[in-house]
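Hi! If you just cloned this repository, the fastest way to understand the data is to look at a raw example. We've pasted two of them here, unedited. The first protein comes first, obviously.
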Amino acid sequence: MIVVLWFAGAVFASNAGGWGPEYPLMTHPREDEIMTDSDTGAELRFLTRGEHKDTNLYFHQRSWLADGSMILFFSGREKGGLMGYVVETGELVSIKASDDTKLRLPTAARFRNSVFALAGDRIVEVAIQLHVQEVDGKPKTAVTARERYLCTIKGVDVYLNESCDGRYLAVGGAKLNGMDQPGLVLIEVETGRWERLCDVPEGVEYHGHVQWSMTNPHWLSFAGAPNRLWVVDIRDRRPWCPYKEWENELVTHEFWWVNDQLGFCGGVNPKPTEDSHVKLLDLRCGTVRIIGAGSWWPDATPAQVAKRNWWHASGSEDGRWIAADNWHGDIVLFEGKTGRPRLLTAGHRTYGVGEHPEVGWDRKGEQVVFASHKRGNVTVCVATIPRAWQEEANRLAVGLEAKSARN
């Protein structure tokens, strides 16, 4: 049964179903390789051989299942699409809907081992169970899934994104369900009920990138033009621009971080030799600071300046780190407390060629995931932050917190 109501210009619909029967997911032999970065000491885990185009999820999506047992990625192989890497055994898993439909625009659920995704126009939750057992002296994984239907929405053109409290999914589209005005939709995870949250303001060009705040269950953002950054509070439903750009100013690839901070990459020197810092905008007071500095000098070539500036960035959920990548495939960490840079690994892309790393985080703030070209074709790489770096960052954070408490 489908129930549709009209209220204040928004459409509400609910016909979410219960969990369907269990079905098996196809597993594949491991292809991974683990090595140590010779310059930094970071462990690098390449999930696949690089024979096909394998890429990580977008940097502001959750790639790890809630318990860290599986890492999601996309594969261009014949029976690819959305796949998972089993951390314990290294095996690969093809993840599909119960009717064998390929899943797209996914994100891992925050609190349980599920994936939210589109199967055609259907928005579904796929719960994943791993059963690791010994076979001929080696660990083998049997993987099963169950599917729950939430709703059907046509025209979704961004990744699904789940609120930090797990209550809602947010999606966006230029023509959601045939509506002429681009806008955003909320989907209640428990019931599948969806509603039109807001239209993109008149005169603003919709650029997608819909994502929830990492810590505030009421705020989400989307990208627009001529001003890039737009935020909407789901309680008043009115989009607002928290940062007005100068003419020719670069503002790109925003991400949410702790303490109601919206990060982005950008600078004021125009292309092709643009500068691009990692900046943090405090939504509470409107101040902007540079957490990861880029560089610019008058006689720099585009390739030279791209080695010292940042294009995508994202922050760990514990507030200890921000990771950023550049056009040469270098991954740099910036300490959350001090902004000091640490090169984690380098050379995962040839300047001007191939996929960008688009580095994202695990749930514990210990690993990052990104696209790498070091194994031939593009593959997915996971880099682990060296333990000594983590311990130093932890000591600094504890010391600053203790000093703040005394004062």
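Ok, and the second one:
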Amino acid sequence: MQRSIVHMDLDSFFVAVECLKDSRLLGKPVIVGSSGDRGVVAACSYEARRFGVHSAMPGRMAKQLCPDAVFIRGDYDAYSQYSDMVTDMVQHRAPLLEKASVDEFYIDMSGMDRFMGCYQWALEVKNRVYKELGLHISVALSTSKTVSKVAVGEAKPNGQIYIPIGMERRFLEPLRIEKMPMIGDKTTHLLRTMGVQTVGTLAQIPQKTLEKVFGKNGTWMWEKANGIDTSSIVPYSAQKSMSKESTYEKDTADMVFLRQEIIRMVSELSFDLRTQKCTSGCIAVKIRYADFDTQTKQFSMPYTASDQILRKYALDLFHKLYNRRLMIRLIGIRLSKLASGGMQLNLFDNSALTGPLYQAMDRIRLRYGITSLKPASILLQNRRPDRLVKSF
């Protein structure tokens, strides 16, 4: 059966929401982020992009490139709300939906041409999103996720494109190699030293040659350059929360040990958030005393997946909550108000500059296990495994 994969991408989403809130921003170079020393550009309008501004750029550099830009701190609660509304609108009509991020969606329409024109369906959803929410969304239809994603980038802003079966390679051939997903700056530089400037040239290189240079990634690049991508749509389901808690064989009031337990659980939860490309807007701490009295305290916070920020909130909640000075039987951490979108959503806080560090740490943990890296504060004193009954 011929695959029909639609990719939808909201145009300059954060800026678009800000323009809905304040119409005076329309047509102006708008930057969501901070222009301070530690500021990072989370998003920018197309007017700002004409000056060379782009996402993840230091705010100070963006200010130099575009002195007249309007800087906005950002309101992720509003972005999350609009993202949820678009998700509901698309999910209600889609046979199979994957929410790739806060502003990107994949829909598997395979086999639906007999009931409806897949491309016409995508255009109807596009028009409905604009009519009901005032947001422009670009759409692309092809036989794979990779080609549809690249095609959306070519269709932006507020565009639509259809790549018929058999035309995938012809569409990709003239494009610059950096337009292919997951080909970063280092890979791009190395390919250019090999004389590879376009996807078409990359597709002509023998697969074994790319494997020798790039290992398994060489096979992946060769397939994508030739329009080959059989990856499936991952069905979307909104996770409400995630949590961890530990019950101890012996009740304890050892504050050093309890603080280490909180730091450990926060570190594991924040890793889970980032691997699932999520952020959290609410954190809760639970303690159960020796007499089984259970107390919980929570705090709503700016959306984040940062160990450092979550650790601070968790420890603050614990010290406010622990007021009976009795022995503790159980302690737990829960993160709720989850929103998809990955680390880019953390660009509003000062932890944005630690993003590359988290990415490096997560790669190590994915390869060697969650316990391969631990916060130094945990290593200062060994945990007491005899106290642990269960942890989940």
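That's it. A detail worth noticing about the second one: The longest strand covers residues 328-340.
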